[in-house]
Amino acid sequence: MAVTTAVDRWLRTRTPRPSAALTLVCLPHAGGSASYYRDWGARLPASVETRVVQYPGREERLVDEPVDDMAAMADALVDVLAPLFDRPVVLFGHSMGAAIGYEVTRRCEERGHPPALLVASGFPAPHRRVPDDLHTRDDDALVAEITRVSGAADTVALASPDLRELLLPMIRADYRLIERYAPAAPPPVSTPLVVYRGDADPDVDHDLGEAWRDLAASGELREHRAFDGGHFYFRHDPTALLGAISAHLGRVRPVTTH
Questions:
Q1: Whole-structure pTM value
Q2: Is position 33 annotated as part of the catalytic site?
């Protein structure tokens, strides 16, 4: 009988590349799952192995209790990712995943294995985000917010009473996690930061993206770029985003041992 490790439970690797030079770890948005990034591994250079976090409570982890606390999520992921640091690790997080990526980066640095790069996509700097309480509202209000951000075409499943009953507890837990996360003065990290967003994202404007500089120990962002589109600017065609990420991955240096 095969032994299931924490890495096996938490990470999905559609295009395994054991000899790759570095690992890209993708952290999905609230309500998101690993399948959202199913094509990324094949579309990125052969030098990159893409691993996608599968949070509890969705897809094949549907029976697992969702994590609704940022500290608990970040602590769990730091343990999961620790074995990957025999080569450089780059974190890409979108929306809620960007905040999780920052908290994971902090913890990895404290343990002495900092990521080579953190790409924060579609999320304001954590200390500049306006708090909300959608996780406390009724199902209709939560579905309305998901539709506002994602679009009606991508939330059609929530029109089915059965699927809605199945999916909303997980989505509500994600919203509870991110809406209760409100650090007043998050400490800066030494890991280089890249910030991406959609130029029509109603929740992340230029200033909120620029505020990520406050979390960079250097005081600088490696890049801050707005792509055409809304909150999920790369949903239908991630080509431009993957090209931008690839340019940064190509500059990552290998891990050195002493």
A1: 0.92
A2: no
